[in-house]
Specification:
The chain is α/β, with parallel strands linked by helices. It is built from 13 helices and eight strands. The longest helix has 15 residues. The protein is globular and about 50 Å long.
């Protein structure tokens, strides 16, 4: 009706929704340390399984199978550069589908400088057509709000932008659902600016924003440097300079609040969720999420 204004969802409700629908990331090794997953994660939670170089596919499939058996939705990483052949990719996908009922995956280049086989990027993986053929229904790609020097050595975004445009076009002509999952960041400004910029360029894929779970600043600094986190490390560096703060865990409350405020003001945003990296441990991350929800 004319003259009426649409009531906006309050940020507190948005923050609760973001937490309730969040995904979380584990490795087979960290997963094996937890005897009772159901006390840490709610049923139906999407759990990404990071595939670190040197991890055998049998360990990955076993982790996915355990998650599925406990009522979770496993989403393993498929790192292009770790794969030796097209046949190996087909084998991985068949095992994930047949042994653990996996229907979704995160595609990424992987950490190797030199590919072990014919695949150097997530685009190479998609080009095989094997994900559709194997019965996968959803894929995710890595997003880089603070850039990626491995892809754009000059510090720009030309190659990253071209890759996003290619993926957008591929998804548009595919039956696969797709989303972007960003690297964790410690400052909302870069991720909000990036999300707005790629949307203006025609990228309409949903975005899950990576948040680092509670951990000591020194731990987060180490992970951030290893993972190529950019300018937002200054937030941690300032905190690490204070000895008292250095000893206390740094939690992503401010990030969560900023995202909720943004979505309350911009409901058209393509930011659709958060992805938790439990860098200080899965239990600490779970406890933080429970407290924040409460």
């Amino acid at each position: 009706m004319s003259g009426m204004t649409q009531e906006r969802t309050p940020p507190t409700s948005i923050a609760a929704d973001l937490l309730a629908s969040s995904s979380v990331e584990v490795t087979p090794k960290t997963l094996a340390k937890e005897a009772d997953l159901t006390s840490l994660l709610p049923a139906g939670k999407v759990v990404f399984i990071a595939h670190i170089a040197g991890t055998h596919i049998a360990e990955m499939v076993a982790a996915a199978r355990r998650l599925r058996a406990k009522g979770f939705d496993p989403q393993p990483h498929i790192p292009a550069r770790l794969l030796g052949s097209r046949a190996e990719l087909a084998d991985w996908l068949a095992r994930y589908r047949g042994e653990a009922g996996v229907e979704r995956a995160l595609l990424l280049a992987g950490g190797l400088a030199t590919p072990a086989g014919p695949f150097a990027s997530s685009m190479d993986l998609l080009g095989t057509g094997l994900f559709d053929a194997a019965g996968f229904r959803e894929i995710a790609f890595a997003g880089h709000p603070e850039g990626n020097r491995d892809i754009d050595p000059d510090g720009g975004t030309a190659h990253l932008d071209a890759a996003l445009a290619w993926k957008q076009a591929f998804v548009a002509r595919s039956d696969l659902k797709a989303a972007l999952v960003t690297q964790f960041t410690f400052d909302p400004a870069p991720v909000l600016a990036w999300a707005g910029r790629i949307a203006a360029a025609g990228i309409d894929l949903p975005v899950r924003v990576g948040l680092a779970g509670p951990a000591k600043p020194a731990t987060l600094l180490r992970y951030g440097l290893n993972c190529g986190v950019g300018a937002s490390l200054r937030v941690l560096s300032r905190r690490a300079g204070d000895l008292g703060h250095m000893l206390r865990p740094f939690a992503p409350d401010d990030m969560l609040s900023a995202l909720a405020d943004h979505l309350a003001a911009h409901p058209e945003s393509r930011i659709s969720g958060i992805h938790l990296f439990p860098l200080g441990g899965l239990r600490a991350c779970s406890d933080w999420a429970a407290r924040a929800l409460g």
